[in-house]
Design brief:
478 residues, mainly alpha, Serine Threonine Protein Phosphatase 5, Tetratricopeptide repeat, two-stranded antiparallel sheet, 2 strands, 61% helix, 1% strand, disordered N terminus, disordered C terminus
């Protein structure tokens, strides 16, 4: 792994010590740099300070053990150090703990816990946590999907100079309405970090090796983004990215392709983007394989070719990339580039569903209801619709509204039906309902409900949007 000379964030929570605040920070910073160079004695000194209750030292020791930077990686031991530091308020530790839950390193994978800890760090203005939280909000991982809130966190991270947050901002601005962008900007301006005035100056966050990011994928044939393992160092410039890509770093090749795709710091060039994605794909990078396949699917930077699209998307799907699994399922369902096969579509929709892709959960639910490629199973279908609805998917929310009225698999409950209708009506609905169908559903709901029931439904919808997700995380497939 490439060594980076970059200090770890410290916070001004002083423990009883004879070292002054400024000298203590300097001492810890110097020890951190020595650990990054492989100096085990420096790690021992940090560990001694951590044993004496120094929160920043605890966070530092935990970070190094989790990342394996300069020391043998030991995630379980790292968690023992970052957890108390995170609970004491260290934003570095909170971000590390959130990343650990996100990746399932040293703790069972739990996206809900990941989002909770990343939010704590983000609220203390930790820019990597802000970017990670934005990724999760954009894709509905561990939290309800909220594009405006995701945009807010990207804006805050980007304002601190983080290039990858800026890339995500440009991607989101392609799909957000003017009103949504304005709301996100207002939220960002209103943000007040308790650390804003007390954080030590001149000390920057260490991006480390836990590196998820939003890969810029366009909606016209390319699926939405999720957290992936190719986040660059926070200080990465275009020149650094290009140098790493030219030296064969497949993640850097993906990032450089994404820069060309979005015009981030370079002239927008689809052909150059596809060139770098191909280099990553040919090295077996699943993200590179997926985006190259999607480029072939829509003819961006390459000639449109469904056979090549399927080839690369399948390679990424076979490496368990969830969006590629969904894409492959969609191809089998529609017969684009492959022979139409509902059974294979259901197989790939299930794989993506088990990794939390809400669109796949809806498609799997529909297949289970119709017995299309799988045996009919209304109860299982309802379970997948509910998972997707709880993550904020509008299509699933409309389906639940209908199910509460038609009594196919749920007892009739007009209040719950109206609640889900209110939650889903303003969101992209895919194949769930057109404008006329939505208008008819609203007419039926209002004809069969009292003013009191509608008022209760509106209150439930409001509470749903404000409270955290209560269901557990989607488990990884075995």
């Amino acid at each position: 792994m490439t060594q980076r000379t970059c200090r770890i964030v410290l916070i001004c929570l002083l423990t009883t010590t004879c070292i002054s605040c400024s000298n203590r920070e300097k001492a810890i910073g110097e020890l951190q740099e020595q650990v990054q160079k492989g100096n085990r004695a420096a790690l021992d000194q940090l560990r001694s300070m951590a044993n004496n209750g120094d929160v920043d030292a605890q966070a530092s020791v935990g970070y190094f053990l989790l990342s394996g930077e300069g020391v043998p990686k030991n995630a379980v031991e790292g968690i023992k150090w970052v957890r108390p530091a995170a609970e004491a308020g260290s934003r570095l530790a909170q971000r590390c703990l959130g990343n650990a839950y996100l990746r399932g390193e040293g703790v069972p994978k739990n996206e809900v816990e990941a989002a909770s800890w990343l939010r704590k760090a983000a609220e203390q203005n930790e820019f990597l946590a802000q970017t990670l939280l934005g990724c999760m909000l954009e894709s509905g991982q561990g939290v309800r999907a909220d594009a405006v809130e995701a945009y807010k966190w990207f804006l805050l991270s980007g304002a601190q100079g983080y290039d990858w947050a800026k890339t995500n901002i440009s991607i989101m601005e392609e799909s957000l309405s003017a009103a949504q962008r304005l709301e996100g900007q207002q939220r960002a301006r209103a943000f007040k970090s308790p650390k804003a005035d007390t954080e030590p100056k001149g000390i920057t966050a260490q991006p480390g090796t836990q590196k998820p990011t939003v890969v810029p994928l366009h909606s016209n044939g390319v699926v939405k983004s999720r957290v992936q393992d190719d986040m660059p160092p926070a200080s990465e410039t275009l020149e650094m990215c290009r140098k790493a890509a030219e030296q064969g770093d497949s993640n850097a090749q993906c990032r450089l392709g994404s820069r060309y795709s979005s015009g981030n710091g370079v002239g927008q060039d689809d052909a150059e983007a596809a060139k770098w994605w191909r280099r990553a794909a040919e090295q077996g990078n699943p993200v590179g394989q997926h985006v190259l396949g999607c480029a072939y699917a829509v003819g961006k930077g390459v000639a449109k070719d469904d056979v090549e699209a399927i080839k690369w998307i399948r390679l990424a799907a076979n490496q368990s990339l969830p969006e590629a699994q969904f894409q492959l399922g969609d191809r089998y369902a529609t017969g684009r580039g492959v022979a139409k096969d509902p059974s294979q579509a259901a197989v790939w929709f299930r794989k993506a569903s088990e990794q939390g892709v809400a669109e796949a959960q809806v498609r799997l639910g529909i297949a289970l209801e119709q017995g299309n490629g799988v045996a009919k199973n209304f109860d299982e279908a309802l379970s997948w619709f509910r998972k997707a609805a709880l993550s904020g998917n509008g299509e699933a929310q409309i389906v639940l509204s209908v199910r509460y009225m038609d009594e196919r698999s749920l007892p009739k409950d007009v209040t719950e039906a109206y609640k889900w209708y209110l939650l889903g009506e303003s969101k992209p609905l895919g194949k769930a309902a057109d404008a006329a169908s939505l208008a008819e559903l609203r007419r039926i709901l209002e004809a069969n409900s009292t003013p009191a029931q509608r008022a209760e439904a509106r209150q439930r919808a409001k509470e749903f949007q404000l409270k955290p997700m209560t269901h557990g995380p989607v488990t990884q497939p075995k």
